[in-house]
Write a structure and sequence with these properties.
elongated, Immunoglobulin-like, alpha+beta, 3 domains, five-stranded mixed β-sheet, single chain, four-stranded mixed β-sheet, 41% helix, Glutaredoxin
Amino acid sequence: MKFLSVFVLAIAHLTLFSQNTVTINGSFSGEPTGTSIVLENYLNPAAFKQTAEISDNKFSFTFDVEKEEIFKLSLSGQNFLALVINPGEKINLTLDPENMGSLPVIEGSPNTEFVYEVQDGLMGFNMKQDSLNTAYQTASAEERKQIEADYFAIDDEKNVYLEGKIKEKAGSLAALFFIEQLNIDMYFPLYEEVDSLLSQNFPDHPAIQGLHNKVVSNKATAIGSVAPDFTQLTPEGEEMNLYSIKDAKIIIIDFWASWCRPCRAENPNMVSLYADYHEKGLEIFGVSLDKDSAAWVRAISSDKLTWPHVSDLKGWKSSAAALYGVGSIPSMFVIDGTNYKILAKNIRGAQLREFVSGKLD
């Protein structure tokens, strides 16, 4: 009986081993550079790394995976293939040795196949837009209007395509390859769905932490929510917080920096908007992502930005930028000056002027 129990345990162990064992058999369509190829955990090479010899343009790996994970197969630093591997997969690859990530032939790994299928689909949209960009260079003013309309129509098609594809794999790490290509303000429910499923399926996985933080910060600054207060220093070194701005009907929180060219290009529009609407109840609260105090102060003076300004001079580590989930600048939040509720986000130029006009005219 004891022998039988040991035998049953051994069989169970072998069954579990076979369920988790992954095999990769690969071949190159041409002669690769080098005689070996490396497979490693994408985010944590220290956790897993194997090297296989290349013989007759072929290679193979055998290893165990307990749960879905992202791997990186590489010949060199820039020439690699990302793989989303699940336990027990038997994967066959045919790769271009010059560009492993360029339309690889993949069998036996559904989530990896998904990643490159979507990538191929996006390439089709991008090629259409590249063609429009080329035509735009020599087009007349009237033709350019149509080209711009066509370009944005393709953007809309691409977003619909991405949304559908991401929903197919919302609970897989494969969704991480594409979710952040969609605007979080426009697709926040999808972001929440992906974040929720991935948090359930892969708790504490380092790949999902950035997405989770983005969802949390965006939720705190969603349209209709109360803008969180924060305190930073003025150019004179005095503390000033958002809620200290009183008697304004509309407040624009403007995240910018002296080194940011798009921000500086937008400043004349902000100056004009402020001149037209400050007396009607508009206030602007400039939050700089500068590190150099002198450069910040020079830009304020040079661009004639006469509204209140603050910064903690920590660049991209700005506490206010983190609080508001700012990942690029210029970034703007339009809030109600009476209750500090967020009315609009990331609009500028003519769109921002139209919005302010609708509230104050």
